[in-house]
Amino acid sequence: MKWILAHLLNYKTKVLGAIIALFVAALAWLLLGQGIKYAIDNGFIEKASQTLNNAMVLVLAITFVACLATYARFYLMTWLGERVSADIRNQVYSHLLSLTPSFFAELRTGEVISRFTSDTTIIQTVVGMSLSMTLRSIVTFVGALALMMFSSPLLTFCVIVAVPAVLIPIKVLAPQVRRFAKESQDKVADLGARIDESLHEIMTVQAYTAEESERMHFSKKVESAMKAAERRIHYRSSLIGCIMCISMSAIIFIAWVGARQVLSGSMTVGELSAFLFYAVMAGGSVATISEVIGEVQRGVGASERLYELLNARSAIDSPSINTEVNALQVLPNAPRIDISKVNFGYSDDKLLFDNLNIVINAGERLALVGPSGAGKTTLFQLLLRFYDPQEGTIYFDGKPINTLSLAYLRQHIAVVTQEPVVFANTVMENIRYGKPEASDEDVINAAKQAFAHEFIDKLDERYQTQLGERGIKLSGGQKQRIAIARAILADRPILLLDEATSALDAMSERMVQQAIDRLMIGKTSIVIAHRLATVQHADRIIVMDNGQVVGSGTHNELMKSDTLYREYAELQLLS
Predict the structure, then answer these.
(1) 524: how many CB neighbours lie within 10 A of its CB?
(2) Distance between CA atoms of residues 275 and 281, nearest Å
(3) How far is it, in rounded angstroms, from Cα 545 to Cα 559?
(4) How far lies 562's CA from each of 70, 329, 542, 558, 573, in Å?
(5) Which 3 state secondary structure label does DSSP give 336?
C-alpha cells in the first residue's frame, strides 16, 4: 500500500482535488439530515407550507452541490486509478527488461503477462473505486457520528457500543479474504501461462493431436482456480453478511429506543428522523467499508505479486556511467577478445567451462565447431553478459567487460541466432530494430545486402507489411534474412553468428554468405558453424567438446591433425 501511495503522491494536485471533492460531497450529504429535521419540525408539524417550500429548495441545492462534488471525486479518483496502473506497468516492465535470461528461465512468461494484466487492473479498481469509497465512507461515518451526538447523546452511545461488534468480523475474516485473494490470483496466473504456452505452440499441439489432452489439462487448472475463488468468495460474503447483520440489528434497536424517546417527549420527530438518517448513513458507510475491504485486500495481494517482480534483482551488475567514463576508453572498430581462465556453469556444483582460455584477434573471423552441449552458445551468452563466469575474466581490447555498462557493451555487438527473432510489426520496423535512428533508405539498402529485398518487394504492403506474431507470415529462410538485414544495418564491431544461414536453401545461402562476408570486413566475428561452407570462410576454427578447446587451426590443418574435427566434418559438414 505504501508503494501505491508513493505513486499517488506523484499527482498531488489531483489527489488534493479528489480529497476536497470527497469532503464537500460527504458534508453536503450530511447536511441533508439537518434539512430533513428542519422540514419535518417546521414544515409538517407547524403546517407552514412556505417553510416547507424553503426547506425543499435548500435540500435540492445541497443535493446539487453534493452531485457536482461526487462527479469531481469520481472523475479524479478514476483518473488516478488509471494513471497509477499505467505507471506501475511502466515501472515493472522497465525493471523486467533489465533482468537476465536466468530470471525468465524460472518464471514463465504467461505468469508475468497475467500479473501485468489482471493484477494491474485490480490495482486500478482499488485506487479508482474502492479506495475512494473507503475514504468517503470513513468521512461520512465520522461526520454522521458527530451529528448523531448533537441530536441524541444516548442513542449515539448505543451506536458506539455497536461499533466494536462490527469490527470483530473485519478483524477475523479480512486476513482470510486477502490470503485467498492472492491464491486465486496465482491460479489465474497459471491459467494465463498455460494459454500463452499452448497457443504459441499451436502447430505442435495440433500436429500431435494433443487438443483433447490440452483441454483436460486446462480444465483442471480452471477448476483449481475456481476452488480458490470459491474460498475467497465465501470469506468475503461472510464478511459482508456479518457486518450487514450487526449494523442493521443495531439500527433497528436504536430506532426502537428513539421511538420511545419521542413518545416520552424527550425528542422531536424531526430530531429522530435526522438521527435515523445519520444512523442509516453511518451503517451504510460501515457496510460499504466491509464490502470494499475485500477489494482492497485483493489489491494488496495484486500489489504484492507485482512488487515481487519489481524487487527481483538482476544477477548481472552494470557499472554506472561515471565508472565507465573514468575507467574506459571507446572500443575500437574491431576489438581483440580475450577469454581468460574462465570457469562457468549454470549451477555452481557443475561447471561447463573449466579454465577456458581463448584469444580472438582484432578483425579475426573465428568459427566454433563441436557437438551439441560443447558450450558454443553459452560462450555467446557470456560475451553478451547474459551470465557472468564464476571465475576468470573476458576482455574486449584489454578492458574487462564487467567494467563496461551493459548498454555500452551490447551496443558493440550484433547477433544473428539460429532461430531468428521477428516481432509482430512491419518489415521496416523489424529491420530498423538494430538501429532505430536509421532512415528508410538505410533499411532498404540493408535488406538488399541481405538479399531480402526481392521477397519483401512481393509482399502485399512491401516494407509496411505486418508480419504477425513471431513473423508467422514468413518462411524460416525469410525470417533469417530479415535478422541478417537487422545485423547489417546495426553495423557493430563484433559479430556473433549462430549458424546464420541454417534456414536457407542452397541458392539463398550462397547469396547471404556473400553478404555476411562483406559484413565481416573490419569486424571481429565469431561464428557457430555446422556447415562446411561457413567453416571454409573462417580465418581460424576452434573445436570445442564438453566445454574445452580440443583443437585449433584452419580447416585443412584440423582435417589432418584433429580426429574429432575430422569425424565431425565427415558426419555433419560433408553429409
Answers:
(1) 26
(2) 10
(3) 16
(4) 83, 40, 11, 5, 15
(5) coil
Nearest one of 125, 79, 116, 110 to 94, comparing CA atoms: 116
pLDDT band at 325 (very low <50, low <70, confident <90, very high): very low
Residues 6+ apart with CB under 8 A from 522: 333, 334, 363, 493
DSSP state of 570: I
Sequence-distant (6+) residues with CB within 8 A of 317 are 402
Confidence of residue 55 (pLDDT cuts 50, 70, 90): low
Alpha-carbon Rg of the chain, whole angstroms? 35
Residue 247, classed as helix, strand or coil, is helix
Residue the block writes with cell 479480512: 174
Tell me the backbone φ, ψ of residue 346, rounded to 5 degrees: -70, -20
Of 173, 188, 252, 199, whose CA–CA distance to 221 is shortest?
Answer: 188
**How are beta strands 365-369 and 413-416 bridged, if at all?**
unpaired
| Whether 278 contacts 147, CB under 8 Å | yes
Residue-wise burial string across 342-378, b where 16 or more C-beta atoms lie within 10 A, e elsewhere: bbbbeeeeebbbeebebebeebbbbbbbbeeebbbeb
**Residue 323 pLDDT class (50, 70, 90 cuts):** very low
The domains located in the chain, with CATH, are 2-311 (1.20.1560.10), 422-491 (3.40.50.300)
Angle at 502 between CA 500 and CA 507, to 5 degrees: 100
Q: Name 443's Cβ contacts closer than 8 Å, sequence gap at least 6.
A: 428, 431, 432, 463, 485, 489
The pLDDT value given to residue 327:
43
**Closest by alpha carbon to 177, among 298, 7, 55, 11?**
298
DSSP secondary structure letters along 481-508: HHHHHHHHHH--SEEEEESTTTTS-HHH
Give catalytic residue positions.
499
- Report the C-alpha gap between 301 and 140 in whole angstroms: 27
* Predicted local distance difference test score (pLDDT) of residue 491: 82
CA atoms within 13 A on the CB side of 346: 13
